[in-house]
Structure prediction request, 349 residues.
Amino acid sequence: MMRRRAFRYSPWIFHLHCGGCNGCDIELLATLTPRYDVERLGIKLVSSPRHADILVVTGPMPKHIIPFAKRVYEQVPEPKVVVAVGSCACSGGVFAGIDVNEENYALVGPIDKVFPVDVYVPGCPPKPEAIIQGIAKAIQVLSTKAVSSKSLRR
Amino acid sequence: MSRALMKELIKGLLKPFTIGYPSVAPRKYAQIVEGLRGKHEVQEDKCIGCGACARRCSTGALKLTDHEFKRTLSVSLKECIFCYRCVEVCPEDALSLSTDFELARTRDEERDLEIKWMNELSKCLNCGKPITTSKQIERVRERVIENIAPQAKGVIAEDLKVFLNYCPACRKELAYKLGFHPAKYYLVLSTRNVT
Ligand code: SF4
Ligand code: SF4
Ligand code: SF4
Prediction:
């Protein structure tokens, strides 16, 4: 119970930029400004993936970033939740071209081809409110994962 | 200090500046600006299934698939960039973008991010292959009759009833047999002009 509460009230997020046009990253930073002020909800942006509970990924994942992205993903301690912000992260968006399954020389497209995604936030870029909604959903997922996660049991 | 800055400062002191977005129901508030583009709204009865939106779509989010006399149009919101091009091009104003921006979904709810609607395809009387949707054929008929010279209207309106029931390949083949070769209309138009 305590564990569940702990994960519900203080999710720390790490922002991972994988390609993309920076639109989503700017919106994500906007959610941290006093206008939207997610810190009142206990959400904090941390500078190391090792401290994070939620990994927020933006961009269409260029091929050369895959090893680094995977490393960051593995560094986030369990239980972790991945939020894909923006059309790029959800499906490849404008960068992937008309056919998503088509091979692209530079991009993988959706993030979920590289590691599992728990919450999708569509939009190009999504509104700060939409990102907050996505993180709110991620917190729900996190608290259910915190209870069921084996790595936390001793 | 400039006047505008003073105004902002005073406003900030009098009212909370922060948007209390994820607060509970009666106080739920988000800044919704004019022209915000969110989830698609489709008026299925208005849509004629012409596929203009699918052709215009920037990312291939709006797809058209024909399967056994059913035309399915689908929007995948995960791919959509809310660029408004599909709305702009729709000849029947069947599409619009609402201000619903709360589209975040978990992996289990992903199905919500797919909007689908259907149209019936009509059958060619000669070869039995699908032509295009019945609604589009009806709309083409109306538009052609609207825009044609008055002296040929009667003849063409009659012919169109037959003509549009065949697929493009069969139209070519059967043009003489069914009596809707273009030469006929030149004749109609030219003779009436002379008299
Ligand atoms: S989803 Fe749109 S705004 Fe976000 S990174 Fe991709 S192109 Fe840029
Ligand atoms: S808004 Fe743009 S990207 Fe979305 S379905 Fe319409 S044309 Fe495609
Ligand atoms: S009528 Fe509008 S919504 Fe329907 S297929 Fe044509 S462009 Fe798309």
Remarks:
- The radius of gyration of chain B is 26 Å.
- The mean pLDDT of chain B is 84.
